[in-house]
Amino acid sequence: MNDPGKNIESVLTENRQFPPSSEFSAQANIGSEQQYMEMWTKAKDDPSGFWGELAKENLDWFQDFDTVMEGDMPETKWFTGGKLNASYQCLDRHLVGPRKNKAAIIWEGEPGDQRILTYQQLHHEVCKFANVLKNLGCETGDRVTIYMPMVPELAIAMLACARIGAVHSIIFGGFSADAIADRNNDAESKLVITADGGWRRGKEIPLKANVDAGLEKSPTVEKVVVYRRTGGDVTMTPDRDYWWHELMDDVDADCPAVELDSEHPLFILYTSGSTGKPKGVLHTTAGYMLGTTMTSRWVFDYKEDDTYWCTADIGWITGHSYITYGPLSNGVTSVMYEGGPNWPDEGRFWQLVEKYQVNIFYTAPTAIRAFIKWGDQFPNQYDLSSLRLLGTVGEPINPEAWMWYHKVIGNEKCPIVDTWWQTETGGIMLSPLPGVTPTKPGSCTKPLPGVVPAIVDEEGNPVEEGGGLLVMTQPWPHMLRTLYGDHERFVDVYFSKFNGKYYFAGDGARLDSDGYYWVMGRVDDVLNVSGHRLSTMEVESALVAHDNVAEAAVVGFPHELKGEGICCFVTLKSGDGSDAEKEELKQHVRKQIGAIATPDKIKIAPQLPKTRSGKIMRRLLRDIAAGRDVSGDVTTLEDAGILDKLREDD
Ligand code: WT7
Question: d(Cα 411, Cα 420) in Å, to the nearest integer?
């Protein structure tokens, strides 16, 4: 286990409860425990009836589906026979009523520039860009890589892909050229959509230059579209690279949404696993759209005049589901911000909350810990009274951070929804319903309707008390369908542990006597750095690709801001590792994977602690990285003297 011990201890002592106010419950989309229990029980006992009715009411169909669900997990197909389009669902159907001229996206760039796109304007841009894609030879089913800053054109590009049935694969702008190449190659992308650059803490991120370097190693890509954001210098390769604005000049806005099968792939999103290359998580149209539409309405309690802000980057699943597809399908006004939270100063988020009168605010524990560190004077300078609901996602939230969020940001009146889910689950799985569930700081509380989790031991037996593995016992519409190009790996990674009976994606959790879930963290070799998944193995491969590295082992350690930091134990081929060489290794990993994977600590090891059979003893390395006494059995260690040497190098 990735040392969940520390979390378990802190959550076990957490007894505070915060029920929603009666005013909040009275206006909530789901307003009573009874209503929740009825929905949950119906979804569990009659999933076809439950999801089928919701799909009829909440999705726009070009052709009705024949069957709600077909086949057992992991091969369940949803809404077969039906035809729909995700871009139509997010745009066209809002144009016939009062939402036509309502703000869909309120955008602010880091330098302070602003744009507002109404549903009608967004529709217009999406239709035009869909025609651009067609002119570039992009067809239904083709894969398109998107590597962009947080500008409205990112949402436009994804919805334009969805409109013609091209499958988008978005790569977070913090990833490196090598990471772009790997993902292009795995998806066999035909087209890349990027920008000259984007702004982050006053600096320009050179997106186009990264794409250029990546394309040297990704032969399937034929064309590149470049959106001009920063005005920085870029090299345009003739007959390959085209400016967004020039292409948009040549097209009209007439582009009917393609009628796609329910199970047509909507997107691929790469995420880290404990072994092998990143996994191309594939989501399909109808199930994903129903899941994100319903979960966002239930959990964020959307009302017609809400201003909603999710601070994630669209390059992660949170941004796919809860900046683009969920909110737009509900016709909500979504705020989108390009840059860093501490630019030009640490009050930027709160300045935006005041300026746009944000009502619903969704962020990550890592950000909350940074706000706490920066000091209350920043939020206290602004009027945050518009806020009515707060959310978190990405990692377990420590009760102290929860309490700070509750008091300083929520003024003790906003429910907090701690939402547990994953790239693979497509949408929120465990979360309070803000008008129903009394919250406990640090717990993601209960399953949403349609989610039937369990805590089991290694053999799959239910665990009544104490911790175990968190599994899903029933399929849900918005679950991943496969890992792109490798269905065998999909079955193996998520379903083989319990012989196909349960979905398991790597988290440990415990259930308390009130039936609340407390997620303790990963149980595999996956790090959770600032709410983002990184595999220890990927960082290790990056390290051993360096000329002077003989062997490397990477572990996480508790980090005040990031949740988990990255500690690398490295055996060199020559030399004993100067500070300059350690810095070089950090930069090397950064270049290979991206800034998010930059190691926090490099420890030079004359050799790595191994068992007599040659397995690296990661448990010991985790203790050393965390500065703890080495616990447990060390008798199988080949050379016991090695531990002291590792501890010395700090
Ligand atoms: C992993 C999924 C889902 C969007 C962001 C991350 C951890 C996520 C919580 C939470 C405790 C959480 C889990 C999960 N996680 N939300 N509320 N409480 N842990 O997506 O990169 O697919 O990572 O993030 O460990 O497995 P992801």
Answer: 24
Six-digit token pair at 330? 């509900």
Please classify residue 409 by burial: count the beta carbons closer than 10 Å to its beta carbon, then call 0-12 exposed, 13-18 middle and 19+ buried.
Answer: buried
The beta strands (E) that lie in 452-500 are given as 453-456, 467-472, 482-483
- Please report where in the chains the tokens 């926090």 appear, as a residue: 600
Peptide bond into 341 cis (omega under 30): no
Task: Indicate the residue type of 210.
Answer: N
Q: Round the CA-based radius of gyration of the chain to a whole number and report it.
A: 24
The position carrying tokens 């070799």 is 525
Query: Strand 265-271 vs strand 467-472: parallel, antiparallel, or unpaired?
Result: unpaired
CB 39, CB 449: distance < 8 Å: yes
| Pick from 287, 258, 243, 265: nearest CA to 59 | 287
- Give the closest residue to 601 by CA, choosing from 612, 623, 585: 585
Mean pLDDT for the chain?
A: 94
Q: What are the backbone angles phi and psi of residue 374, rounded to the nearest 5°? A: -70, -25
Q: Say how many C-beta atoms besides its own lie within 10 A of residue 52's C-beta.
A: 18
State the pLDDT at residue 8. 46
DSSP 320: I
pLDDT at residue 295 is higher than 70: yes
CA of 569 to the centre of ligand 1 (A): 26
Tell me the two tokens of residue 394.
């990405």
CA of 335 to the centre of ligand 1 (A): 22
**pLDDT for position 617:** 86
Nearest CA to 186 among 139, 221, 158?
A: 221
Q: Is the CB of 299 under 6 A from ligand 1?
A: no
Pick the closest to residue 632 from 621, 648, 644, 647 (CA basis).
621
Domains of the chain, each with CATH number or no CATH: 8-85+268-303+359-518 (3.40.50.12780), 125-258 (3.40.50.980), 546-648 (3.30.300.30)
The residue nearest atom 5 of ligand 1, judged by CA position, is 394
- Ligand 1 atom showing the smallest separation from residue 397 Cα: 18
- The answer to whether 262 and 286 are in contact (CB under 8 A) is yes
Q: Tell me, what's the pLDDT at 6? A: 43
Ligand 1 atom 3 nearest Cα: 422
Query: Is any ligand 1 atom within 6 A of the Cβ of residue 423?
Result: yes
